[in-house]
Amino acid sequence: MAERTLVLIKPDAVRRGLIGEIVARLERKGLTIDAMTLRTMDVTLADQHYAEHVERDFYPPLREFMTGGPLVSLIVSGDEAVSVVRTLIGATDGRKAAPGSIRGDLSLSNRENLVHASDSPDSAKREIALWFPDFAN
Ligand code: CMP
C-alpha cells in the first residue's frame, strides 16, 4: 500500500557531500520525493522529534550533533515506504549495518549514521506533522 515516510539526511551526510548519493538511492529504488528542504534543526524541534529519546544517556550529544549544521528533511512516498526505507538505510550502528545499505556502505558510527527514517506508519504521521505541517493529514 502506498504510504509516506519522513527522512532526514543528517548533518554528517550534508557535511560529507552525500545528499546526492542518498537521494539517488531512494529514487533508484522507485520511491518518490514529495517534499525536500535544507534547514538547521533547532533544539525545540530536536526535543519534539526525538521525544522518545530525551531521557537517554546518548541524547545530549545526539541533540548537539543534529542541531550542529544543516540537514535535509524529505517526505518520501511509495509502496510500503516506511519499511522499504528502513531496509535501505540499514541498522542504526553503521559499523554493524549490512553492506549494500546506506549506513552499511557509508557510515562507521552509531550516532553519525547519515540518515533518519520513521520507524512505523504512526511515527511517520507524527514526524511529517512536525517537519512539514502543510503536508499533515
Ligand atoms: P535515528 O534513526 O535518527 O534515531 C535515533 C538516533 O539516536 C539514531 O538514529 C542515532 O543517531 C542515535 N543513537 C541511537 N542509539 C545510539 C547510541 N547507543 N549511541 C549514540 N547514538 C545513538
UniProtKB/TrEMBL annotation:
Keyword Nucleotidyltransferase in record: no
Catalytic activity: a 2'-deoxyribonucleoside 5'-diphosphate + ATP = a 2'-deoxyribonucleoside 5'-triphosphate + ADP; a ribonucleoside 5'-diphosphate + ATP = a ribonucleoside 5'-triphosphate + ADP
SMART domains according to UniProt: NDK
Record GO terms (molecular function): nucleoside diphosphate kinase activity
InterPro entries hit by this protein: NDK-like_dom, NDK-like_dom_sf, Nucleoside_diP_kinase, Nucleoside_diP_kinase_AS
Signal peptide: none
Active-site residues from the entry: 116 (pros-phosphohistidine intermediate)
SUPFAM superfamilies (UniProt xref): Nucleoside diphosphate kinase, NDK
Compartment annotation: Cytoplasm
Nucleoside diphosphate kinase-like domain sequence ranges: 2-137
Residues that hold ATP according to the record: 10, 58, 86, 92, 103, 113
PROSITE patterns the record matches: NDPK, NDPK_LIKE
SUBUNIT field: Homotetramer.
Protein role: Major role in the synthesis of nucleoside triphosphates other than ATP. The ATP gamma phosphate is transferred to the NDP beta phosphate via a ping-pong mechanism, using a phosphorylated active-site intermediate.
Family: Belongs to the NDK family.
HAMAP family xrefs: NDP_kinase
Name this protein carries in UniProt: Nucleoside diphosphate kinase
Organism annotation: Dactylosporangium fulvum
Gene transcribed to yield this protein: ndk
